[in-house]
Structure formats: C-alpha cells, structure tokens
Amino acid sequence: MPLREHLVEIRKRLFLAAIGIVLGAVVGWIVYEPVLQALQQPLVDAAERRNVLTGLNFEGVATAIDMKVKVSLFLGVLLSSPWWLYQLFAFITPGLTSKEKRYAFGFIGAAVPLFLAGVALAWVMLPRAVALLNEFVPDGSANLINAQMYLGFVMRLMLAFGIAFLVPVIMVALNTMGVVRAATWLAGWRWAVLISFLFAAIMTPTPDVLTMFCVALPICALYFLAYGISVLHDRRVDQRDAARLAL
C-alpha cells in the first residue's frame, strides 16, 4: 500500500476511533452524577471512619464543568475501548493474510476483557488507597482534596492497571508475528516477576503485603499464560517447518 493510502487509512481509523470516544463521552456526560458519587464514596467512607471532614474541593469558577468534561471523556475511553481497539487492529489487518486476520480478531477478543479487568481491579483498590492516605490526616483537621488532582490520581491508577493487563496480549502478538519465541519469554521470567511486584508495590499505596500479592500474582499468572500460548504456537510452527523440510 502506498504511503498516501496509509496516511488516508490511519486518518480514517483515528476519525472512527474519535467518533466512538465522543459517543462514549456523551453517555459519560449523562451518567456523570452517579459516577461522581461513586468516586467520592471512598472519601465519604474514610471521613466517617475517622470523623474527619474530607471531600473534594472545586477550586475556580470553571473547575466543576472542567471536571465533568474530563470524567465524561475518561468514561468515553473506557466505554468505547472495544471500538478503538478494533480500529487499531483494523489498520493492521489489510497487510495480513486471512489466517493472521483471525489471530488479530482473537487479540481484540482478549485485549478488551483484560483491559477492563485491569480497570476493575484498580477500582477495587481505590477505597483501600483512599482509606490509607486519609489515616495520615491529623485529628481535628480537614482534608479538602483538589478535585482535579483526585481525578488525575484515579485516572492514572485505572489506566496503569488496564495497560498492565494488556501485556500478555502484546507478548502473544509478538510471538505470533515471529518476533519473539517462547524461550525468550521463559528466559526473562525472573525479570517479569520482579517488575510485576515492583509495579504492585508502587501502584498500591497500602502497606500490607497481602494487597501487593493480590495485585502482582494475577499479572504474573497472565505472563505465564501468555508464555504457555507462545509455546503451543512455536510447536505448531516447528512441526509445520519440519513437514515442509521433509518434503
């Protein structure tokens, strides 16, 4: 495909992905109030537990509307994730064979639930993180949190977990394309486990070891699951190549 057609195609896919995000953001705008209440619930629970005034502080005249727009766009990204992931793979598929296209759609089917599972795990971790951080507020003080900073903290937490859960899909994709063999993933398993626990330690502000293990172990399990799938793929490729040589 010539360069000009590539540019036209990527512009088309980006436009379609943006349309999906905008439509998801419209839904996010509609459900903003219950979502904001859910986001604030960990703060309310922490305030009741400590009997400390805790809540979001909307500084500035336009902060409230700015936060509503950002939350709506963030929800749009989450809700439309199947659509923009499909557009990403649709941009790649014209250069693939029919068999490789089946693999691509399989990757979409795995990437969407894994991304959403990572986001869900971050959502489960959020109340524990807020409760721990609120423990450091001195008695008799108020903890009025900047709404923009709190929103940024939640968004980074969820996106980081969502992307972390996409790593196995990337591993299998690289193996399927013949870039990395399963033996390479096995050779790097110690680094993978170390990085998983470092990620869990950094992204979970709670000090207990149990929480860190609850975050790190699923990531490690997904790594070894991706390694197992890569082993099966390499065996099929090796058997096919051996059969061709025998002919």
From TrEMBL:
GO MF annotation, one: proton motive force dependent protein transmembrane transporter activity
Stretch forming the signal peptide: none
Any one GO BP annotation for this protein: intracellular protein transmembrane transport
UniProt topology in membrane: Multi-pass membrane protein
One Pfam assignment: TatC
Membrane-spanning residues: 14-32, 71-92, 104-126, 153-174, 186-203, 209-232
Principal place of residence: membrane
InterPro entries: TatC
Sorted UniProt keywords: Cell membrane, Membrane, Protein transport, Translocation, Transmembrane, Transmembrane helix, Transport
Localization annotation: Cell membrane; Membrane
GO cellular component: TAT protein transport complex
Quaternary assembly: The Tat system comprises two distinct complexes: a TatABC complex, containing multiple copies of TatA, TatB and TatC subunits, and a separate TatA complex, containing only TatA subunits. Substrates initially bind to the TatABC complex, which probably triggers association of the separate TatA complex to form the active translocon.
Functional summary from the UniProt entry: Part of the twin-arginine translocation (Tat) system that transports large folded proteins containing a characteristic twin-arginine motif in their signal peptide across membranes. Together with TatB, TatC is part of a receptor directly interacting with Tat signal peptides.
Family listed: Belongs to the TatC family.
Identification of the protein by name: Sec-independent protein translocase protein TatC
Organism the protein comes from: Cellulosimicrobium funkei
Lineage: Bacteria, Bacillati, Actinomycetota, Actinomycetes, Micrococcales
